[in-house]
Amino acid sequence: MPRKKVPPQPPVQLQQALDWLAEPPSEDPLLDLVPLRNHVAAIGSLGLPVLHQLKIDELLQQRAESIDEVLTPMLLDVKLPLPIYLATVAQGLIGLRAELGETWLKVAREADLTELARSHRNRVQICLNGIFNLSRQFIATLLIAAPTPLYFWRNAQALYHSAHESVDPTATLPAEMSAIDTRFKAMLALTAAQPEGLAPREIAFLSEYLETYAAATRIDMNRPEKAGDWFWLDSNLDQPPIPLARLQPYSGLCLYFRFGELAELAARHLDQLNDGVPPLSLGLPLQAAGADYRNALERARQCWISPRRRSFNRRPQDMKVSVCTQLSSLWTALQRDSEQEPLASECTLTYSDWTLLNESPSGYAIAHVVGEVTGIVPGCAVGLRTGTGAAWQICLVRWARSKGSSHLELGLEVLAPSAKPVRIQALASRSPEPPIPALLLPALPALHRNEAILAIRSNYNARPFTLLQEDDAHLKVVECMPHRSLIETSSVEVFEFIRNTAAR
After folding, report:
1. Where are the alpha helices (DSSP H) in 76-151?
2. Which CA distances in Å does 84 have to 125, 405, 408?
3. Fewer Cβ close by (within 10 Å): the C or N end of the chain?
4. 98 near 149, Cβ under 8 Å?
5. Which helix (H) or strand (E) holds 450?
């Protein structure tokens, strides 16, 4: 009697991956992240037929979505430097998304079209999976202010070109092609918006906005006659978009793109939101009604319509500076300085040591060396001084970069060479609010700026307030009226004001 054929057993690594996928996801993303990355690597090393690789990758990607859904909300309110746990998980997710993106790119390059058709798939769908993973990798990278991962832009361009090369441009394009274009354009637009200067929630908001409206971005294979507001990407280079007015492309296959139409669309949305039109009626998320998100969209619009250029050349430096990274700590430090207390009485946790990397007339770039640092987010205020006894310069964090929980670089804009600690209290409030600490910035005639208040974001720039200032052991109380808003971020507001001396 002939022996019954026994079907071949799947490789051990494949069976282990399938067994693991059959289990419910863990509540702790880290517990799923490590084995998921191990399974992705193991499956990739087996040399499976493309169709088998494709099917298991789809299952692995579903588990990645579960991790993303848990982790991303955890990153929206974090401040730098990241806690070690979150930094570990976030970097793991970024690595996972990169591996999945590269896997799908490999499938797109190697898969036979006939084999794909038998599994009811096509190359455009494969490229969409790749672009989707890279876009999620990109968002996670921006949320934690990390450097753009190696090969990110090269792989993103490769998937974009592979998708377009696989279709007949004269025929009706599959729906997946539109999705690829939108996600690719969204990454371009988000990069051009200078996300290193945005808080995590602002990045998430812009990302959601661009998922719908990034299609307005114009992409061209032909070099424009005038640089204007055009950007370019070279498919042979692993680099982010570069403004054409700043640098000419070297050679190779380039994509040229501009965001003029997107900027016009954002301007219309902003006008309607500022007129009180409900965001849902405009097809925008509910949070678009908030001033933080409108400000973020306005900053992005300005970047899209006019790529920024550095106003001043930066001079390299290498000197130690002290930094206050909390507004409350800075207020206390200024108060102590005004009281002329001995330096030995200062709280050692108030300050941290940094290296001044470079400077310009408008600001600094600094890198953290030692000392406790908490609460850093683009748009927050910090104090910087160049030596013991020097005045505290009041600065705004314009950008932040972090390579983990132990590395942090900041770009600072100097708002004022000094400040005085004061308190402000809103007037005409139904329920009286207690006075809050604020900084009184001196007038800067050279910049056509009058004296101003820097305070935590709380809409003080739109309502009358009382200014309480201690001077020579005397308390001065003056009613004031906001005059002109200078800066609004998710953390602070800076505004000029008028003293009502007649109300004393």
Report:
1. 84-110, 113-118, 123-143
2. 37, 6, 13
3. N
4. yes
5. none
| Integer Cα distance of 490 and 427 in angstroms | 23
Q: Which residues make Cβ contacts (< 8 Å) with residue 250, sequence separation at least 6?
A: 234, 237
58-66: long-range contacts (C-beta < 8 A, 24 or more apart)?
Answer: 58/129, 59/18, 59/21, 60/17, 60/21, 60/36, 60/100, 61/100, 61/129, 61/133, 63/21, 63/25, 63/32, 63/36, 64/36, 64/93, 64/96, 64/97, 64/100, 64/133, 66/25, 66/32
d(CA 241, CA 127): 21
Q: Which two tokens stand for residue 208?
A: 């959601």
Q: Are residues 425 and 407 in the same domain?
A: no
CA distances from 69 to 65, 66, 97, 140 (A): 6, 5, 13, 12
Distance CA(386)–CA(317), nearest Å, equals: 12
Exposed, middle or buried: residue 40 (CB in 10 Å: 0-12, 13-18, 19+)? Answer: buried
Tokens (6 digits) for 169: 């441009």
Q: Which two tokens stand for residue 474?
A: 């005397």
Asked if residue 266 lies in contact with residue 297, where contact means CB atoms within 8 angstroms, the answer is: yes
* Chain CA centroid to CA 49, Å: 39
Q: Is residue 475 part of a domain?
A: yes
Which DSSP symbol is given to 167?
Answer: S
Q: Do residue 394 and residue 433 come from a single domain?
A: no
| Residue 365 β-bridge partners | 358, 411
> Quick one: tokens of 478?
């003056």
On whether the CB atoms of residues 487 and 493 are closer than 8 A, the answer is yes
DSSP, res 314: P
Say how far apart CA 424 and CA 340 lie, in whole Å: 23
Residue 44 covered by a domain = yes
**The domain containing residue 33 runs over which residues?**
9-166
pLDDT at 452: 97
**Is residue 283 left, alpha or beta, with left meaning phi > 0 and alpha meaning psi from -120 to 50?**
left
How many domains does the chain fold into? 3
Please indicate, yes or no, whether residues 110 and 123 belong to a single structural domain of this protein.
yes
Under the phi-then-psi rule, with left for phi > 0, alpha for psi from -120 to 50, and beta for the rest, what region is 145? Answer: left
Q: What is the pTM of this model?
A: 0.90
Q: Which residue has the higher pLDDT, 2 or 244?
A: 244
